[in-house]
UniProtKB/TrEMBL annotation, chain A:
<feature type="transmembrane region" description="Helical">
    <location>
        <begin position="206"/>
        <end position="223"/>
    </location>
</feature>
<dbReference type="Pfam" id="PF02366">
    <property type="entry name" value="PMT"/>
</dbReference>
<feature type="domain" description="MIR">
    <location>
        <begin position="392"/>
        <end position="449"/>
    </location>
</feature>
<feature type="transmembrane region" description="Helical">
    <location>
        <begin position="661"/>
        <end position="681"/>
    </location>
</feature>
<keyword id="KW-0812">Transmembrane</keyword>
<keyword id="KW-0328">Glycosyltransferase</keyword>
<dbReference type="GO" id="GO:0005789">
    <property type="term" value="C:endoplasmic reticulum membrane"/>
</dbReference>
<feature type="domain" description="MIR">
    <location>
        <begin position="453"/>
        <end position="513"/>
    </location>
</feature>
<feature type="transmembrane region" description="Helical">
    <location>
        <begin position="260"/>
        <end position="281"/>
    </location>
</feature>
TrEMBL record, chain B:
<keyword id="KW-0808">Transferase</keyword>
<comment type="similarity">
    <text>Belongs to the glycosyltransferase 39 family.</text>
</comment>
<feature type="domain" description="MIR">
    <location>
        <begin position="358"/>
        <end position="414"/>
    </location>
</feature>
<comment type="pathway">
    <text>Protein modification; protein glycosylation.</text>
</comment>
<keyword id="KW-0328">Glycosyltransferase</keyword>
<dbReference type="InterPro" id="IPR036300">
    <property type="entry name" value="MIR_dom_sf"/>
</dbReference>
<keyword id="KW-0812">Transmembrane</keyword>
<dbReference type="InterPro" id="IPR032421">
    <property type="entry name" value="PMT_4TMC"/>
</dbReference>
<dbReference type="GO" id="GO:0004169">
    <property type="term" value="F:dolichyl-phosphate-mannose-protein mannosyltransferase activity"/>
</dbReference>
Length: 757, 704
């Protein structure tokens, strides 16, 4: 009952006071009595959290920092247009888009510049509402977490207050950003796991907490991949607890098995299913084609409404002799492109003096063009005979074909001449007979890479095909380099003699396809210009789409960009960096992401003290010197795993990442580190020194807060954008709670609550 | 006690016999064919060449620490190689050069691996069968054979790794006789091997980690032993600190000291190092040089970027091509010394008062830099840079020193104040562009062909202090100023050590995979997905292909999975208190302790590659493969020994014998099938039915 009553405290703090049913429904006796317990501290803390995070969130009415990034996706969501964001799974965007949906946002806003004024159709308040709510609910969660770790309510209050007054977290919560949502899920996952662990075995509430752990873990991972770190930490903790359970020989094997299976289902299987579920919803919501279509395979694109689907809808499925096709390279590196040729020959001599065949260029071209059309020809027939017979004769795996360029009627050819940019490979050309003893070598074997049977038919869009040259066994391949001026900077296509395994650059699929009907070249050209139409529909399964999307998200590399406010992980601990989130174009009003110096320092100190304490206890216990009782040691250990461990798993991996990093990446780690402060203080207080009552800490923070406010007003006259370093040096003031450094004019108009200063 | 030692003696006896037999076989196998291939294979171009550098004492740069190449050089020197062979490209013939000593040295170190593995597994499991399986796996693995045949660092590295593991295991066995002579011997030997491993390649760090973890665990159990006084415990700690930290560190530093003493002539590696470093090298123009101390107007200078391997500010008679910013003269960074690196310092207002004392350049002064050869000024403007799109383009502009306001640069000494003089070689200088406020920057990216593959120079609007935007003045010619001797600059040994490490680490992480190339990925390795071509491509050539014996590698992979399952079962059984007999408990102990150590070794030598951004090759897996093979020995042996879990005695015994026989036969047979991979193939490729390797191309990705 203890568990459920505290849970109710939490629910009550959300502003919906619910009641605890004293007697279960099964044993209803009259009169029905309802008793409510309200933890007032929790209510107050929650109210403060809401106040600090929600007050005046529609200011500024302009794009603040990464809102410019998330905003695009919110717009695309409201328009249900497909996109790929490699930075994280879709749940985060979905949550933000839900805010947009509540506010009735129509998605019509161009997110291109930080500081751009929002137009009137953008519901700023509701866009920022959900992150702010999540951010404010973190405050009571901190309280609950510390209580669950077994510390006193005063300590828990300290933790909540420290979290409440951490201005970097306030700033991050007040805008349309995802960190606060992530932190919310992380804290909730930890709290519910601890609840599960502390609850008495056998109670149904316990199972509910376990399930909630799984659900929130999935949500955390669904918002950002960073959530994985905490998820793994919890899994590790759960594994240790389960191992202890297995070692309990008082339990029967059946019970142990049940427990292990339940935990596995709730903590591993359930999150996996939910993760898939997020993608399912994502893919179902976004059914229209959009800006990132090109990155996906033809089959994927065809499943989206508009875009490629409009073209490919109704194409014949089986490629037959006489088919007119465009061939897309399966590899989308460097960019997606189609096999192409045009009326221009390779230069007789290249710049470096090497010779070429001077035959017609064959390239890969990243735009739709009539010159991308090729006709599949049966080598046994004449060039004139380019229509599909009825019934059509499909091309199968292993068949030998010729490829005729639609507009120029040249046959795709390769020979032992070095390719222009990649001399180790063969040149590919449209064959022209110059009568220079260079015979045509234009036979290609169709090798379907993803065939299901040996006699599989070449299918439009679905089949991934290698074209293997008959005489030289070279494979038609995109080399990845682009041609110089004479090749119009299109991409080079070569015949690769040394072909290793499966390489996407050597595999092609038919994208557009129709059966050729025209006998004459002129007619055929007209036909090539006309759009395709005949009806067949095809769809990818959800799993196929999920796998493709997930793979693309993990492998898409965006250019390593340098950013003015990017920082390295080392700078985070010392808070040696900040980010200017927003700057008023006319007045000097600014919003900065910068931490509370006191909290930051205290957190670092607490961590150091904790590590020292832990090591000394550990070594002394090894020598059987027990300074503290076993229970306290276990408590300290658990707090360490959650808080110090949470800090470490959310911080240390950044040292190995090669992407551009910002201060806000540190916030989840900081959250856990902050929780360590009161924990360490209480431990010191009760077991080591007996000084520094917790209230003093609260007073100290409060005074620091007050002082920094005067400091903020003192800086009002500052005209230059302030330099962080100078700030740290000149201001001995411990507490830089400077979030909104607003110049005189805006300051007077917008009265901001003291919590947001 | 007597009864206990007896079977052990028997085991050791069998072990010794087996060891001798294996050692012999291995030596024959490895030396069998290394004389046959009379031309360079694969990376021999590098390491052979570096061996020659040691013999010729010319300075070079390599991303690996020097021990391996030093030993190669030494082996060559002892066997009469004169260091004159150029090692140009794979496939060149050695002709009359005396290369066999270097190859023989590597091969003999490589042949030590199976016996070492044998002894290690024997120590861990006390089972000669397990040890024999391991030794067979390593001896008949085509990959291990191929990689040991050539002048490469890998056999040397693997020798030291195995040596360290073996001595660590031996040391662990001495646990009950602390501070005895063998105890000290194995401790010191572990330390020596660790320094050797790290001295060959940085991969040695992983084995250091392994030994470190083992030692920490060891100390932890000692600490828990309350019979041991804290003083004794302190002795244990100190002796390990000496044997496993101080001694290896000393040896490692000594290796570098020898390296620097031996290589005292200027060579191809100079440009990678700072100006101060170069002043040590005979033949370098900074060696015993003297030049004016402070930068002055009218001086001719070269400017070197402070990024390690940063290059000199360079320009030449070529323009940026159409479409790359403004079509003005290129400015690049160039690693080699060249007359095109010379720049002339001008005052901004251009009223060069040439008379009298030359003026010195001070912090905050505004100058122009005129390219000596082409008389263009260093210039920047608001066009995007060729590769780093967020930066501005830097060009050469104007003629004969006349230009426009975009040619003005402000000199800033890092950490200096207004009026400070600019010291040659010692001051870090930034050049701030007056008009746009950006700073002269070397991005480290290589320009395409039009830029002669030199390094991009940009003007960065981000004013963060990085070595990329800091420069020093290296050569300084001004006849009007008195020269001072630069011998004061000669860096301290520790400075050299530090710098060479930074250069090596940068060099290592600078080896980025190119986008369009087929790269080897860590997941390819355990499944033997793709090998490496050592020499020969075509049908007519003599081909050697580095590929593990697939039967053995897949056996290793299966064993890894088996091991995890077996350990899980064993620990669950122990945890739930299932009654086990003594033999079974011993099996569990071997699996969990011995196997655990090996699994840890495998993980440490394999998993970190997933996080590496640098380019990876197939042969990086070989150290991990050693551990995996040892684990295979223990796993399969334990599995077969436990046959009586599901079969009754006579049958289980048959299964045991039969299984062992099958295993050895499979290993030998697969070796016979795949041996041409290591000993060379001629004739058609494997997809041709006439080939000697016909039918053996089991995976499409193999290229033989």
């Amino acid at each position: 009952m203890l568990a459920s009553s505290s849970w109710l405290h939490f629910v009550q703090t959300l502003g919906h006071p619910r009641l605890l049913f004293d007697s279960m429904l099964t044993s209803i006796k009259l009169p029905i009595v309802i008793r409510a317990e309200i933890n007032l501290v929790l209510v107050v803390v929650t109210a403060l959290g809401l106040l600090s995070r929600l007050y005046g969130i529609n200011f500024p009415k302009a794009v603040v920092f990464d809102e410019v990034y998330y905003g695009q996706f919110v717009s695309l969501y409201t328009k249900q247009v497909f996109f790929i964001d490699e930075s994280g799974p879709p749940l985060g965007h979905m949550i933000l888009a839900f805010g947009a949906y509540l506010g009735g946002f129509d998605g019509n806003f161009i997110w291109n510049r930080i500081g751009a004024e929002y137009s009137s159709n953008v519901p700023v308040w509701s866009l920022r509402l959900i992150p702010a709510l999540a951010g404010s609910l973190c405050v009571p969660l901190c309280y609950l977490l510390v209580v669950e770790l077994g510390y006193s309510h005063l300590t828990a209050l300290g933790a909540a207050l420290l979290f409440l007054m951490e201005n970097s977290l306030i700033v991050q919560s007040r805008f349309m950003l995802l960190e606060s949502v992530l932190i919310f899920f992380l804290l909730l996952a930890v709290v519910s796991y601890l609840r599960f662990h502390n609850a008495q075995s056998g109670s149904p509430v316990r199972l509910a907490w376990l399930v909630l752990t799984g659900v929130t873990c999935a949500c955390a991972v669904g918002v950002k991949y960073m959530g994985l770190f905490t998820y793994f930490l919890l899994l590790g903790l759960a594994a240790v607890h389960t191992w202890q359970l297995i070692g309990d020989r008082a339990l029967s094997n059946g019970v142990v098995l049940m427990q292990v299976v339940t935990r596995f289902l709730a903590l591993v299987v359930l999150p996996l299913l939910l993760y898939l579920g997020f993608f399912y919803v994502h893919l179902n919501l976004l059914y229209r084609s959009g800006p990132h279509d090109q990155m996906m395979s033809s089959a994927f694109q065809a499943s989206l409404e508009g875009g490629l689907a409009r073209i490919t809808q109704g194409q014949p499925l089986e490629v037959a002799y006489g088919s007119q096709v465009t061939l897309r390279s399966v590899s989308s590196k460097p960019i997606p492109c189609w096999l192409h040729s045009h009326k221009a020959n390779y230069p007789i001599r290249y710049e470096n003096g090497r010779g070429s065949s001077h035959q017609q260029q064959v390239t890969c071209y990243p735009f739709k063009d009539v010159n991308n059309w090729w006709i599949i020809k049966d080598p046994g027939r004449f060039v004139q005979d380019l229509v599909v017979s009825s019934p059509p004769r499909p091309v199968r795996h292993g068949d030998v074909v010729q490829l005729l360029h639609g507009m120029t009627s040249r046959l795709l050819n390769t020979h032992d001449v070095a390719a222009p940019m990649s001399p180790h490979a063969q040149e590919v050309s449209g064959y022209i007979d110059f009568n220079v003893s260079m015979p045509a070598q234009n036979l290609w074997k169709v090798d379907i890479a993803n065939r299901e049977a040996e006699q599989d038919v070449w299918k439009t869009i679905l089949s991934e095909v290698r074209l293997i040259h008959i005489n030289t066994s070279a494979v038609l391949k995109l080399s990845g380099s682009s041609l110089p001026e004479w090749g119009y900077r299109q991409l080079e296509v070569v015949g690769d003699k040394i072909y290793k395994g499966y390489q996407p650059s050597g595999v092609w699929n038919v994208e557009e396809h129709r059966y050729g009907r025209s006998l004459e070249q002129r007619e055929r050209e007209l036909e090539l210009h006309s759009p395709t139409h005949i009806d067949i529909n095809r769809n990818l399964t959800f799993i196929a789409k999920f796998l493709e999307l997930q793979w693309k998200m993990l492998t898409v590399k965006h250019e390593d960009s340098e950013h003015k406010y990017s920082s390295s992980p080392l700078e985070w601990i010392t808070m040696n960096t900040n980010i200017a989130y927003w700057l008023h174009p006319a007045s000097n009003a600014q919003i900065h992401l910068i931490g509370n110096f006191v909290t930051w320092t205290l957190a670092n100190l607490a961590l150091a003290v904790y590590v020292l304490l832990f090591l000394s206890y550990l070594l002394r216990r090894r020598r059987k010197i027990e300074d503290i009782p076993e229970a306290t040691w276990c408590q300290l250990l658990q707090a360490g795993v959650v808080c110090a461990g949470g800090w470490a798993v959310n911080y240390l991996p950044f040292f190995m990442m090669e992407k551009t990093l910002f201060l806000y990446h540190y916030l989840p780690a900081l959250t856990f580190q902050i929780l360590l402060i009161p924990v360490v203080l209480e431990h010191l207080h009760t077991h080591m020194l007996r000084w520094a009552p917790m209230t003093r800490l609260g007073l100290w923070i409060e005074s620091g807060h007050r002082r920094s406010r005067t400091f903020a007003q003192g800086r009002k006259r500052l005209r230059e954008p302030f330099q962080r370093k100078a700030l740290l040096k000149t201001c001995f003031v411990e507490c830089i709670t400077l979030i909104l450094l607003v110049s005189t004019s805006t300051w007077d108009q917008r009265t901001l609550g003291p919590e947001t200063v | 006690m007597e009864k206990h030692t007896d079977p052990r003696n028997h085991a050791t006896c069998v072990a010794k016999n087996g060891l001798l037999k294996f050692d012999y076989v291995v030596r024959v196998l490895r030396t069998f064919c290394r004389y046959f291939m009379k031309h360079i294979g694969w990376d021999e171009t590098h390491f052979g060449k570096m061996g020659s550098y040691y013999i010729n004492r010319t300075f070079f740069f390599d991303v690996h620490p020097p021990l391996g190449k030093m030993l190669i050089g030494l082996a060559g020197y002892m066997t009469g190689y004169d260091g004159t062979y150029p090692f140009l490209k794979p496939g060149d013939r050695y002709e009359h050069h005396n290369y066999w000593g270097m190859r023989g040295f590597c091969a003999s170190l490589g042949s030590c691996l199976p016996p070492f593995a044998y002894l290690t597994v024997l120590e861990l499991s006390q089972s000669p069968t397990a040890a024999l399986i391991t030794a067979a796996v390593l001896a008949f693995d085509t990959g291990c054979i191929t990689i040991s045949q050539y002048i490469l660092l890998d056999p040397i590295l693997m020798f030291f790794i195995m040596g360290a593991v073996l001595s660590m295991v031996k040391f662990n066995r001495q646990r009950y006789r602390p501070f005895s002579t063998p105890w000290w011997f194995w401790l010191v030997l572990t330390g020596v091997n660790l320094s050797g491993a790290l001295g060959v390649k940085f991969v040695g760090l992983f084995v250091i980690l392994l030994v470190g973890m083992n030692t920490a665990w060891d100390l932890w159990s000692l600490l828990g032993d309350l019979h041991l006084s804290l003083i004794d415990f302190g002795k244990h700690v100190l002796s390990r600190v000496f044997g496993l930290i101080l001694l290896p560190l000393f040896l490692y530093v000594t290796i570098f000291a020898v390296h620097f003493v031996v290589l005292n002539k200027s060579g191809p590696g100079d440009g990678f190092f700072s100006s101060a470093f170069q002043s040590r090298l005979i033949g370098n123009n900074l060696h015993n040089a003297s030049m004016p101390e402070y930068l002055a107007y009218g001086s001719i200078i070269t400017v070197k970027n402070l990024r390690i391997a940063g290059g000199y500010l360079h320009s030449h008679w070529h323009l940026y091509p159409e479409g790359v910013g403004a079509k003005q003269q290129q400015v690049t960074a160039y690693l080699h010394k060249d007359y095109n690196n010379m720049w002339l310092v001008h005052r901004s207002n251009d009223s060069d008062a040439q008379s009298g004392e030359p003026d010195l350049v001070r912090h905050g002064d505004i100058i122009q830099l005129e390219h000596k050869e082409t008389t263009r000024n260093l210039h920047s403007h608001l066009h995007e840079a060729p590769l780093t799109k967020k930066h501005f383009q830097v060009t050469g502009y104007g003629i004969n020193g006349t230009g426009d306001p975009n040619d003005l640069w402000q000199v800033e000494v890092c950490g200096g104040r207004k009026g400070d003089l600019v010291k040659v070689l010692r001051s870090k200088v930034r050049f701030l562009h007056r008009a746009t406020g950006c700073v002269l920057y070397s991005s480290g990216k290589t320009l395409p062909k039009w830029g002669w593959e030199q390094v991009e120079i940009t003007c960065s609007p981000y004013l963060k202090e990085t070595p990329n935007s800091q420069w020093n003045i290296e050569d300084h010619i001004n006849t009007k100023l008195p020269n001072i001797s630069l011998s004061v600059l000669k860096p301290h040994f520790l400075e050299i050590l530090l710098e060479s490490h930074i250069v090596m680490i940068r060099g290592n992480s600078g080896l980025k995979p190119k986008d369009n190339e087929m790269n080897s990925k860590p997941w390819h390795w355990p499944i033997n997905y793709q090998g490496l071509r050592f020499s020969g491509v075509n049908e007519t050539e003599y081909r050697v292909y580095l590929l593990g014996n697939p039967v053995i590698w897949w056996l290793n992979l299966v064993s890894l999975g088996l091991y995890v399952v077996m350990v899980a079962v064993a620990s669950l059984a122990l945890r739930r208190g299932v009654q086990l007999d003594k033999r079974r408990i011993e099996h569990c102990r071997v699996l969990m302790e011995g196997g655990g150590l090996l699994l840890l070794g495998w993980l440490l030598h394999y998993v970190p590659f997933y996080t590496m951004g640098r380019i990876l090759y197939y042969h990086h897996y070989f150290p991990a493969m050693l551990f995996s093979s040892m684990l295979t020995g223990i796993t399969l042996d334990t599995l077969l020994q436990s046959a009586d879990l599901w079969l009754r005695p006579p049958y289980s015994d048959w299964l045991l014998r039969g299984g062992q026989a099958m295993l050895f036969l499979a290993i030998l047979d697969s070796f016979y099938m795949f041996h041409p991979l290591s000993y060379g193939m001629r004739g058609p490729l494997a997809h041709d039915p006439d080939s000697t390797m016909a039918g053996l191309k089991w995976m499409d990705s193999w290229e033989f």
